[in-house]
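Researcher: Last one for today. Full complex below.
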Amino acid sequence: MNFPDHLKYTKDHEWVLVDGNVATVGITDFAQSELGDIVYVEIETVGEELNKEEVFGTVEAVKTVSDLFMPLSGKVLERNDAIDGNPESVNSDPYGAGWMIKMEIKDASELSGLLDAAAYRSLIGQ
Amino acid sequence: MSETTTLKSTALSATHIQLGAKMVPFAGYNMPVSYAGLNDEHHTVRNGVGVFDVSHMGEFILKGDRVLDLIQYVTTNDVTQLFDGRVQYSCMPNGNGGIVDDLLVYRIDEKTYMLVVNASNIEKDWNWISKHNTFGVEMKDISDRTSLLAVQGPKALETLQKLTDINLSEVPYYHFKKGKFAGVDNVVISNTGYTGAGGFEVYFDNEVAETIWNAIFEAGAEFGIKPIGLGARDTLRLEMGFCLYGNDIDDTTSPIEAGLGWITKFNKEFIDKSILLEHKEKGVSRKLVGFEMIDRGIPRHDYEIADAQGTVIGKVTSGTQSPTLQKGIGMGYVATAHAKVGTEIYVKVRDKALKAVVVKIPFLKK
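Model: Here's the assembly. Have a good evening.
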C-alpha cells in the first residue's frame, strides 16, 4: 500500500495536503481498500465552517458506509465534483483524482496534531 | 464473534489466504469476503463462472425407517414430493411461529436424507431436530468433514462437465447426482446455488478439497474462472431476493410474513401448522418486501422505513447497491398496508428520508 511522504494523515484514515492556508483532503489507500468498491461520495458541506473531527460527508461503498471527518478546523471551500461521475477514482487513485475537498485552515497550530506517513503506517500496522 | 474465540478454518482457508483474499470471521469461520473486489467478483458470476468456498455450511445425514416422518414434522415443505436425487428448499418453524433456520433437504434414497443448514445455526438446528426425533432416526453431523464449493455462473456447466461423466445438462434445477468427479468417487453434484446465475454446488470430503479446487480452476481457466468471496455472495443473492437467515428471517419472523408461503404446505402435520395456517388465512400485520431506491442512496440492515408522513412502518433487513442494476435495492418488513408493489416508501438514511418503491422480487428480471 502506498502512503506518500509529502502528505499528512489522520487516525480517521484521511490524508491532508497542505498548501499555504489551504488543505486538500481525501481518504487513504488503506481506507479505500477497507471500504471496497465505492458507489458515491456525498459532500453537502461546501461553505460551512466545521471543527476538526466533525463530519463533512460520507462515502457509500457497495457493502458499507463511512463518515468523512474534518482533519482540521476550517471552512469547506470546494468539493471534487469529478468523483460524482467517476467514484471508482477514489479506489484507483485515492491521492490524486479521488481527492474529496479543499478547505481553509483556520488554526495552523492544529497541523502538529496530524500524523506523518511513518506514524500512519504504524497506526494501521503496515 | 469475540476475538478470544478461535476461528474455525475450512479445508481451503489457507488457499484463500495464499490467493490474497481478505478474510473475515463469519459464523465462527475464517472466511474469504473478497479477492479481486466485490463488483468484479459479482460480474464474474453473472457473466462467466466463479467459485465460492461455502464449506462452513452444515450437513446432517438422517437415516431410518421413519426419516420421512421426522423431516415432515420439523420442516414446512412437503417432503413426500421428493424422490431420489431431488432437492427441496424448506424451513423449520420454532414452535412460536418463527423460524429456526432455512435449509435444503436432499433425498439420497427412501431411508436417507441430507439436510444442509446455515453455518451459524448448526448447533441450534441439531439440538432442535434431535429434540423432536421421537422417530428413532439415526442422525449424523458431517459438517466438519464435508467441503462445499458453489460453482456459479453461465459457464459453470461447461466448466464442471469436463470433470465428470455425469451428463450435467440432464440434472435440472434442484436435482442432484452422486458420482465420480475430478477422479474422486461419491461427490454430490447439485444444481442449486444462491446466486440466480445458474451452476452447481459440489459436496465432498475435506481430504480431497485441494484436488477438487485445483481441478475446477484448471477446467474453468478458459472461461476466466475466479474465486468469489462472501461479499459478492450477498449482493448476488440479494439481487434475486433470496432470504438470508439472521437478516431477513429469524426466530421472530413467520414464514408467511417472509413470503415463504410457497414452501409452507398444510397438507401434512408439522410444528406450528396451526399458527402458520392462521397467519395465512387471517393475514399478517407485516410483510417482507423488496424495494428499489428512487432517490440516490443505499439501504442498509436496520435502517428505518417510513411512510410519506414520516411514520415508521418497518425496518430494512438487507440492502446494498446492486452491481447489476446500479441502484440501491433492499428488503425489509413493512406494515401490510404498505406492502403492495408500487407503494412509495421512505428509507431513513442518516438524517434524510429517501424515496423508494416496493417492487416484485427478484430484482433481477430474467
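The mean pLDDT of chain B is 97. The CA atoms of residues 152 and 199 of chain B lie 4 Å apart.
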